[in-house]
Amino acid sequence: MMPTIFFLLGLLLLYLGGEALVKGSVSLALRLRISTLVLGMTVVSFATSAPELLVSLEAALKGYTDITLGNVIGSNIANIALVLGLAAVLFRMNISLQTKKISFPFLFLSSIFFGVILYFCNGISFWIGVTFVISLVIFSTLLIRKSRQENLQIAIGKDELLAEENQSPIYKSISFIIVGIILLKFGADYFIDGAIVLAKVFSVSNRVIAVTVIAIGTSIPELATTVIAALKKEESLAVGNLIGSNIFNILAVLGLTALIKDIPLLDEQLFRTDYLLMMGLTIFLGGVIYLFSKNKISRIEGVILLVFYIVYIIYTISFHMA
User: Fold this and answer.
1) Where on the phi/psi map is residue 233: left (φ > 0), alpha (ψ -120 to 50), or beta?
2) Which of 173, 195, 295, 305 could form a disulfide with 28 if both were Cys (CB 3.0 to 4.6 A apart)?
3) CB 192 within 8 A of CB 55
4) If 0-12 CB within 10 Å is exposed, 13-18 middle and 19+ buried, where does residue 202 land?
């Protein structure tokens, strides 16, 4: 009974947190003269990646580095296949020019570099963590500067922008973001606590729990934020949050965790199966962005992503229990 209560309470807090985070983020983007896409890829992405960071850090400190790596890889898979797939089925998801020129290429390169490190170094060391964090700081700084210099247009008109500035002081925008982050954190905690207890009934391994239950749980903030952003017609924030979150999962979550404790690759299956699937999904997303339905993610592509994720989860659990 208690796990079910934690699960439902977690979902409620995640919804409320996503609502507050989107409201504060859009308002802050207006005040800072940057696009909602850029804010989604920086502030919002870091906020929604906070559960992954907390779970991964705690797991690494306790010696469960297969959970640390599995959580990041599984969350990136869930963000593309589950979150983006579901959002594309429910809403029209437009792809911005900045996503095509800067954000996705950086995600692709980060994912490739992550795989190379796992293959040749068999884990994430302190100095690799330093490299990850520095790369993320440089990328975020350049992204924000470019957005401010170009003064990208946002979804509402200039007159509304001025009215919004008069009505929403910057401290109020930041307060919404902070409240949203806090609610997402506790919501994720309750959700994960309930889900792990339920999952352990089936006696599955740390890797399987990490890439399924924990990954889905820590991706719930992205799901809540993306759906709410799409409902509010902030497609740039929705897509930017997902791509930015995958970048943050690799460079920030693993990078910051490695600064405190090395992350060895204990379960080879994480690389041979889960990482390769993550990379395959990233390539598929690139095909959607550049080759297939250009500038948007169609409902059919969303269905394909969702079906893939369901098959992946069933295969992962069935293979372990076989």
Assistant:
1) left
2) 173
3) yes
4) exposed
93 beta partners: 297
**Cβ atoms of residues 82 and 309 within 8 Å:** yes
User: Which of 180-184, 286-290, 304-308 is most confident?
Assistant: 304-308
Question: In this structure, are residues 284 and 81 in contact, taking their beta carbons and an 8 Å threshold?
Answer: no
pTM (2 d.p.): 0.79
Take residue 40 and report the two structure tokens written for it: 């989604």
Cα separation, 4 vs 43, in Å, equals 31
Q: DSSP readout, 126-173?
A: HHHHHHHHHHHHHHHHHHHHHHHHHT---SS-HHHHHHHHHHS-HHHH
**Total domains in the fold of the chain:** 1
User: In this predicted structure, which of 16-20, 248-252, 253-257, 274-278 has the lowest mean pLDDT?
Assistant: 16-20
Q: Give the count of beta carbons closer than 10 Å to the beta carbon of residue 186.
A: 16
Query: Average pLDDT of 244-250?
Result: 90
What kind and span of H or E run contains 214?
Answer: none
Q: Which residue has the tokens 């372990």?
A: 320
The CATH number of residue 121's host domain is 1.20.1420.30
The helix/strand/coil state of 62 is: coil
Higher pLDDT, 285 or 146: 285
Range of the domain at 103: 2-321
The yes-or-no verdict on residue 32 having pLDDT over 70 is no
Number of Cα atoms under 13 Å in the Cβ half of residue 102:
17
Backbone phi and psi for residue 256, each to the nearest 5 degrees, phi listed first: -65, -40
pLDDT score recorded for residue 263: 92
Distances (CA, A) of 289 to 136, 140, 239, 296, 298: 23, 22, 11, 7, 10
